[in-house]
Amino acid sequence: MDRGNGLLRTVQQILWHLADRNADALAALQTEDDDAGSIARDWIKTYATDAQGQVTADFEDGGSVRQEVVLHFAESRRTQEITVGIDNEA
Fold it and tell me: Cα separation of 18 and 80, whole Å?
C-alpha cells in the first residue's frame, strides 16, 4: 500500500468510528496520548452527528512522518484539523 492510500484509509476510519460512536475503536487509532479514551469520547460528543453527514477532507502539504488534514463537516459548517501519522513501512 502506498503512503497516500494508508493516509486516506486512516482518515476514513476516524470518520467511521466517529459516526458509529465507537470510542474504543477511535481511541485505538491514537498513538501519542495516554488519555486516548477520554479524547475519543470528547470527539464523539462533538463530532459524531456531523460525521454521519457529508464530510470532506483537505490534505495539506505532506510531511515525512505526519500529515495535517482539515475535516469539513457540511451540516454544521465546522472544521477540525487533525494530524495523522504516516506509515513509512509501505
Answer: 13
Residue 44 · residue 18 · CB < 8 Å: yes
Q: Which residues have C-beta within 8 Å of that of residue 43, sequence separation ≥ 6?
A: 18, 26
The cell numbers describing 40, all together, are 475519543
Global pTM? Answer: 0.83
Kind and range of the H or E element at 75?
Answer: none
Contact (Cβ atoms closer than 8 angstroms) between residue 58 and residue 70? yes
pLDDT digits (tens, 9 = 90+) for 20-67: 999 999 999 887 767 889 999 999 999 999 999 999 999 987 766 788
DSSP codes, 21-51: T-HHHHHHH--S-TTHHHHHHHHHHHHHHHH
